[in-house]
Amino acid sequence: MSRRTTLALSGAAVMALALTAASLSWTIAAPRAAAFAERDLARRYGLGLAVAGPATLTLLPAPSLRFSGVRLRRGGHDLVASEGLQVQLGLAGLLAGRAEITGLVLERARIAVPDGAGSDWTEPAARLAARVAAGRGRHLRRLVLVDATLSLRDPRTGHPETVTGLNLVANWPRPTAGLDLSAAFTWRGVPATLALSGLRPRELAAGAETPLSAALTWNGAGAGGAEGSAEIEGTLFWARETAGDAARDLPEAAPKETSGAGLRLSGQGRFATPSLPGTLAWLEIAPGPAALAGPVSLDGRFLARPGGVEWPEIRVRVGDSQLEGAGAASLVRGRLAVTGTLAAERIDFSGLLPKAELLPEAGPGGWSRAPLSLDGLTRGDLDLRLSAASARLGPVEAQDVAAGLLVRDGTVEATLGRATVQGGTVKGRAALAAVPAGLDARLQGSADRIDLGGLFADLGWPRWILGRAQGSVALDGTGSSLADLVGRLTGRAAATVEGGEILGLNLADLAQRPETAATALRRGGRTHFERARISLTVSDGVAEIGQGLVRGAALTASLGGRVFLAERRLGAEARIEPQPDGRSSGGFAIEGPWLRPTLRPLAARLPSPSLPAAASAYAP
Questions:
Q1: Do residues 312 and 303 lie in contact, with contact meaning Cβ atoms separated by under 8 Å?
Q2: pLDDT band with cut points at 50, 70 and 90 for residue 247
Q3: Which GO terms fall under biological process for this protein (predicted)?
């Protein structure tokens, strides 16, 4: 073997030994190593480093120091306590004998997140923002958290919160490059993931706009139904405008509460959840009317400010209904306020109706005696205006619908500006307000040219009367339960039906044979009429029939009596007017439950006896 070959092999062996040695972890004096790393942490961020365990040094693949039992401190307070800390160092600085920290890896760390301007994190955050904005010196290129725990306070309520199982990787390779971040964690018992890319910290710190892409998912199907996702593609910047400027920039539909400086985020966003009440409950946001919703998705252009968000353009899907329009939302002390103007080709409100198994049981009189409350619906504010070419509420179809829903603290008001139902027009307003006695309810409405037969068929009711109807109603009452409220109803109602017929009852036949009244409903039959009219005066749950009339070509019948709303019972009499030959036709009583009444014949009215002409002077 030549001398040159021997020297080459010896050099290779020395190099291999050097590389092997550099790749090994070398135990070094922990106090001196900690002091070496602390100088850079103190100079850049004002943080102190305390180490309780041993320290090791590794040179390859990148210089790093590893510590055990670590505390990052500020002002004598521990901000971070970690079982392990790996400090990644820049090679140039290390060769020059100084620490230049380029990355941190914290293992099973417990981190106290700042909760105010005067916290111990204030100065480190300010120093970091200043260095990033100015682009001075080396920056932290990599941050890794392994199974970390964050302790923080909810800024809305001040209640302590904890994020557990946090695994985070953040990479920022160059000051002019974007920051990428991915994280997985558990919050309030719900696992979640976050992915963020494109954020440019230098522009953000300098007050300029930075692009941002973010995606958040949460999956707590077994924890109250909190499940869903949110995606954002837009721009972010830190605004330093005054509160007056912020208020001036808000659109008309937006909440006018603003704060001065703060993050502003705009762009395209998407939100979807199979259970909106479950997601809002996870976020500890009072759902208000959203408690009635199921699967919900939002998609559109948005602008988010501290405490609020506006959607100049938004597409909303609730169940099988898709709506488009504009809206805004704000969150003040945990109370959600939403405004919106939305339109759709078709809306299905059937999902808002309570399921039969969830309805309270009825009392002996037929109405529920369960306590009435608006607490579940008025924990948030809502001002919603809707329009649709067609809509469905349960079995009822409507066209050309314009409606609104207004919810405020303790009140719910629904308005129907117009709707076409079975060829006729319907308008109305219903309002509920919480009062010490329970609920105060008010109902006003009108209908014109409604096809009663088609409406009864849609509702699944017996089609006992046909014709075109018009009417009005104005009722109000107060009660602690539905039974109590119905028993205190007052108001008026009136209805007129033109060109119709009564099914299941032949009044002409009954006029000829009044003794068959008890079986008339069972025999069936039909009564054609030109006009039927009825008016009701309601007081304390009893409707007095003030004017009841059925007029046909062959006969005329009048109706009087009462409808006992609380008991769902009828107590009325129908009188058939004298026939053309002067013979009285008598009448019949309508009694019993209003869905299954019975008929009973009444004695015919005797004609007044005629007096001789000579005796007329003595007549009273």
A1: yes
A2: very low
A3: regulation of protein targeting to membrane
